[in-house]
């Protein structure tokens, strides 16, 4: 593991009433290395800035997380280097679907994660936005 993951847990234990399976931590300790700060990723193509043609929160989350993975890799890292995620949702009813999908990308990574429900994102068709921080070890 790239960093010290303090107090690891899985959301299936924390939220037994929801169908979740996300590996998270209460804290991540990263020493040295190169820090990557990603802007909030939205369900759009990184090269064209075109939105995906879906209003499904699962499909939007797949695009957001694949953008995060692509950017971290382009910067020389890998998903194991992700230390923090902040999830912005426009509807709390999408939380379970979004977090289930997010969990597919962070299995075994254990980042810290904060989730917020907001009134709106920059475009009305966006249901989810996620920003990430990663630290590539020396």
UniProtKB/TrEMBL annotation:
Domain of life of the organism encoding this protein: Bacteria
One Pfam short name: Ribonuc_L-PSP
Gene3D superfamilies assigned to the protein according to its UniProt record, in alphabetical order: RutC-like
Gene Ontology MF term list: deaminase activity
Cellular component annotations (GO), alphabetically ordered: cytosol
InterPro entries in the cross-refs: RutC-like_sf, YjgF/YER057c/UK114
Database matches in PANTHER family: 2-IMINOBUTANOATE/2-IMINOPROPANOATE DEAMINASE RIDA, PROTEIN HMF1-RELATED
Family assignment from sequence similarity: Belongs to the RutC family.
Annotated protein name in UniProt: RidA family protein
Organism: Pseudooceanicola sediminis
